[in-house]
Fold this protein.
Amino acid sequence: MNILLNKRLINFLKQYPGIFRVVKATYIESYLGLKKIENLPKKIRFKLKGDQDIVEKLLLDYPMILSGMVTENHVRVVLRNLKKVLDEGVEGDIVELGCNVGTTSLFIQKLLKHYGSGKVFHIYDSFEGLPEVKAQDKINLKSRGKPRSKNYQKGSCKTKKEELINNFRKAKLKLPTIHTGWFGKIPDEEYPKKIAFAFFDGDFYSSIMDSFDKVYPKMVPNSRITIHDYQWKFLPGVEEACIDFLKDKPEEGTVINNDRIGIMIKK
Ligand SMILES: C[S@@+](CC[C@H](N)C(=O)[O-])C[C@H]1O[C@@H](n2cnc3c(N)ncnc32)[C@H](O)[C@@H]1O
């Protein structure tokens, strides 16, 4: 089979994500030398999708970095909300607080590229891992009797900035503007003047509070914040921070949960 035919076949199959996944998993990956998508779902959903939009294409098209921190569906929910903001023409730039090795950052940048968006993408991380655990991060120890996962301690998720940079290089994507430091200590001027979309992935109470402190005042009406690990029993500080920060704001009680991603729309 020549290269042109391979491309045509792949493009044809990509119109039907369900079939594409099955065929790719069982046969054509080795035969056609397809780009490896490592994060195949355990149960392959065999269904044809009529709503095959750019988000689904990106999720199919793109190798997923297996950081173990976000699932394919988490990325899907984040991208769908970013897409909404882009489609609505909401003013302002894009931020991600807690970028780590860039699993989500890569997808965000890819969607911005698809849109030819002029929005600047800023990403923030200490690259030192998580900060101190606070009492609010242990709340379910008391209320539900479930132990907080040992995976989440001071210094967990530590990574190297170079790894993030390398992932962008490998993906041939423009590097976002990287800001290194603790969210709360990074000066206000390093956050964009107006923010259209934010992704918070700081895991702990203080990190989410600091994210809100820095980002919320710069959110424009109809902008969105998506918050990872919202209402997840292992990181209770995330929801606690949302409750505490929003208690005197018009958005109090409006955060909705879609598969562990909290979604807040600025009024
Ligand atoms: C769960 S990881 C983020 C995963 C990332 N979104 C991805 O897709 O790969 C959490 C990151 O937040 C960073 N972080 C947590 N709290 C922080 C804080 N207060 N200031 C700066 N960085 C923080 C950690 O260093 C870590 O890299």
